[in-house]
Design a protein that fits this description.
With 266 residues, the chain is an alpha+beta fold. The chain has seven helices and seven strands; from the N terminus they run αααβαββαββαββα. The C terminus is likely disordered.
Length: 266
Amino acid sequence: MTMDPAQQIQELTQRVALLEEELMRAQRLSSVGALASSITHEFNNILTTVINYAKMGLRHPDEAMRTKSFDRILTASQRAARITTGMLSYARNTSARIEPADLKRLLEDVLVLVQKDLQMHRITVDLQASGSVWAMANSSQVQQLLMNLIVNARQAMKENGRLRLVVRDNAADGWAEIVVADSGCGIPQDKLPHIFDSFYTTKQPDERGQGGTGLGLALCRRIIEAHKGRIRVESEPGKGTIFTVKLPRSESPAGFVTTSPQAVAG
Ligand SMILES: Nc1ncnc2c1ncn2[C@@H]1O[C@H](COP(=O)(O)OP(=O)(O)OP(=O)(O)O)[C@@H](O)[C@H]1O
Ligand SMILES: [Mg+2]
């Protein structure tokens, strides 16, 4: 019972496609793993707030104090809910559909998860996005791309770095663009051609044995290819790195009205 070569090739091609999908999923989860400690930290803070205000409300039964306590508890729990919802949808969402998606919204969802990590490293975030920017995109893949770029940027910066995030609609050229720029260590000229290769990493394992796998940017490149987009990197050692991603832009879908600041003012 030998398979003919054509059949064998078809079978192997299918297996490769399945393994690539599996790899993509594993990488999604490992990028969330990089945030585990900061997210645990944040949950601890939220719980402390909830416990303290619950005690306070019980101890001071006057109306004003109780209302204030409930208010604080509600705000803290809502923050926790946003994080868990974000985590679950980030880890689970694997549809392959490409449809109009608002890049600003996707970026904000990723920021909910990375915010604490950035804050713990005293990184200033400069977000430049005036309104919705629509692209033909697969939301979960673009979130994975943003997560990888932002986690890389964070890892390249010491304390007090600056992360600049731009989302803009380049209607003239037909692109929806995202810029992720850091003030980190930069990438030497001779290393630049390798950064998108699978398993290329310069990150040494830390005390828990967790180093880079070198898959983050390789998957970013695949995601960009699947979107027929572009990715460009400019870097200066000691100064920082700028990644520019271009995805095919889309008109805002029916039912969505994009109001520019001028339109509101006028
Ligand atoms: N913003 C950046 N600043 C400096 N170097 C970078 C930056 N982004 C990527 N690099 C370099 O490119 C290499 C490859 O990045 P990539 O995200 O593919 O892998 P990794 O971050 O090392 O590991 P993983 O993403 O799998 O945890 C990094 O090891 C680093 O040397
Ligand atoms: Mg990485």
